[in-house]
């Protein structure tokens, strides 16, 4: 785990890691797909990442998860990414969203499972309840979302402790992504994370993820 004494130094650490990783991968691949998380925490990272000298024309940005709402809603992860990441030099990147309220949610998920490209890098966050992506400990879909044998990558979840119906990657899909980055802030989340590292079952979801992917690069700041 990489620990920092400020959010700024944490962001710099993540940026340096991503730049090295992306540069290396683009030496052998024609393009990359990077999935990012929403919420307020990644805004500083997105703003700085958008200014980096990356071959953005070869980068596709998508989301780890999304609320099933209109993309112009202030709570939309797509809206957040377009406002803070797909700016500056990153304007040249391609973007694929997850939400389309003109369709039934089941049809949207079917479309994503049939058409989404493979993801090379995922930048994940974690809630104080140990959820990651939209796999919440409280959701009725927890068992299905945590099923490591499923071949479908996207799932609908209905968390009881958060607003909106969600679409996101399930645990099976997350652990198959070649390169995982986890960004967390605050002592409360650090405590949750350290406890989760000792748990061998599905609670909380971040514990299941890290037990299957101990190579996840973790970046924490106070």
TrEMBL record:
User: Which stretches make up the Glucosamine/galactosamine-6-phosphate isomerase domain?
Assistant: 8-212
Ordered alphabetically, the record's keywords are:
Hydrolase
Entry's EC annotation: 3.1.1.31
Q: What is this protein called?
A: 6-phosphogluconolactonase
Q: Which family does it belong to?
A: Belongs to the glucosamine/galactosamine-6-phosphate isomerase family. 6-phosphogluconolactonase subfamily.
Pathways involved:
Carbohydrate degradation; pentose phosphate pathway; D-ribulose 5-phosphate from D-glucose 6-phosphate (oxidative stage): step 2/3
* Main enzyme class: hydrolase
Q: What's its job?
A: Hydrolysis of 6-phosphogluconolactone to 6-phosphogluconate.
Enumerate the catalysed reactions: 6-phospho-D-glucono-1,5-lactone + H2O = 6-phospho-D-gluconate + H(+)
Q: In this entry, which stretches build a coiled coil?
A: none
Give the Gene Ontology MF terms in alphabetical order: 6-phosphogluconolactonase activity
What's the encoding gene here?
pgl
GO BP = carbohydrate metabolic process; pentose-phosphate shunt
